[in-house]
UniProtKB/TrEMBL annotation:
Annotated TM spans: 12-31, 51-69, 90-110, 122-143, 150-170, 209-229, 241-261, 273-292, 304-325, 359-378
This protein's name: DUF5009 domain-containing protein
Coiled coil (residue ranges): none
Keywords on record: Membrane, Transmembrane, Transmembrane helix
Taxonomic source organism: Pedobacter kyonggii
Length: 386
């Protein structure tokens, strides 16, 4: 008999809360009207929105520890587990790639152009792509390496990335720097991905670029270490929570201290950002674990557990829906055309609220609308696993 995989309700809750927040901040009615906490920091610094993606990657790490520990203990299953992780990571990458290229292909077909033009300007990396890549690398490390060594690898990753970004002169610039377009990570993205395949809003660098994926792996490894700690059967719950709080606070302090020399920055995924976000995630999970799993307060968890058990599904659908609906063009009274979803927002929201509140209410409606779908799936026990 195989050991059943333990499941933390608090982890599902924390994951669902994170994904719901991700849907909220990714779908404002207007990108020109957003409350400051729901927007990313301009460059250095960290808003609540900047914590969402690292929280999710950190949670991926915790989940890896819970899902793969039995396989790690049995060397005969290592290869099978790694193959499954690679397949899952590739599927995640392809889902992200599909979101990036879908609209381009449809537009090319509508305009009578070759669909191959879409591949010439498609973004190669992104949120789902990063999740897939980080998942593969982190899973292999977890399966093949002792837990104490994982901690050492995390330290090496953070130190190595700091050294690369702050000491290596950027070719063509001549000195190391952390500015948007002239840092080492941006130079690597332009050289390998090329400007045609980076983030469309920047063109010269990618927030989910190649080099910054290294510290993103560190975020996932941080979560794995927490998952390993939470699974321990020789430690009582109070001790688990106390140490997790302590480690989280220490990590936040270290991140803030490192920020003085290597600024907290989501786009660069700096080492200080890994420690700061990972520390806050540790504190958040410790709090959820104590309230939900230890004290047994569970009634309030359902809305976010509903989001948590189908996290990737809802993230994919939330990205796909506006792309599909805005391909349907509506002619406005002035003769101009706009997407169906945009027209619906302009008709049903902007006349009744101030611009910034209309944008927020739209985003909340988006979250609630997907909750209805997810709740139906939850009650029918429909869980789509990638």
């Amino acid at each position: 008999m195989t050991e059943p995989k333990p499941r933390l309700l608090s982890l599902d809750f924390f994951r669902g809360l994170t994904v719901a927040a991700m849907i909220l901040v990714n779908n404002p009615g207007s990108w020109g009207h957003i409350y400051a906490p729901l927007a990313h920091a301009e460059w250095n610094g960290c808003t609540p929105t900047d914590l969402i993606f690292p929280f999710f990657l950190w949670i991926v790490g915790v989940s890896v520890a819970f899902a793969m520990s039995s396989s790690k203990a049995d060397p005969h299953t290592h290869q099978k587990t790694i193959i499954k992780a690679i397949k899952r990571g590739i599927i995640l990458y392809l889902l992200g790639f599909f979101l990036a290229i879908f609209g381009k292909i449809i537009s090319a077909i509508i305009d009578g152009r070759s669909i191959w033009e879409a591949f010439q300007t498609v973004r190669l990396l992104g949120v789902l792509q990063r999740i897939g890549i980080v998942f593969i690398i982190s899973s292999i490390i977890f399966i093949k390496v002792a837990n104490k060594t994982i901690f050492k690898i995390l330290i090496v990753i953070l130190a190595l990335y700091w050294a690369l970004m702050t000491f290596i002169p950027v070719p063509g610039v001549g000195y190391p720097n952390l500015e948007k377009e002239t840092n080492l990570a941006a130079w690597i993205d332009r050289g390998i991905l090329t400007e045609a395949h980076t983030w469309a809003s920047s063109k010269t660098w990618d927030p989910e670029g190649i080099l910054s994926t290294l510290p993103a792996v560190g975020t996932c490894l941080f979560g794995i270490l927490v998952g390993v700690w939470m699974r321990r059967k020789d430690v009582d719950n109070a001790t688990k929570v106390a140490w997790l709080f302590t480690a989280g606070i220490a990590s936040v302090i270290l991140g803030l201290l490192w920020d003085l020399q290597f600024p907290i920055n989501k786009a660069l995924w700096t080492s200080s950002y890994v420690l700061y976000a990972g520390g806050l995630a540790s504190i958040g999970l410790a709090l959820c674990y104590w309230i939900i799993d230890v004290q047994g307060y569970k009634k309030f968890t359902t809305p976010f557990v509903v989001y948590g058990v189908n996290a990737i599904t809802v993230f994919f659908l939330a990205g796909l829906m506006p792309r599909v609906l805005n391909l349907i063009q509506i002619t406005k009274p002035d003769g101009t055309k706009t997407g169906l979803l945009v027209r619906f927002y302009e008709t049903c929201y902007t006349p009744f609220f101030s611009p910034i509140n209309a944008s927020l209410v739209w985003a909340i409606t988006y979250v609630l609308g997907f909750y209805m779908l997810l709740y139906f799936m939850y009650k029918k026990n429909i869980i789509i696993k990638v």
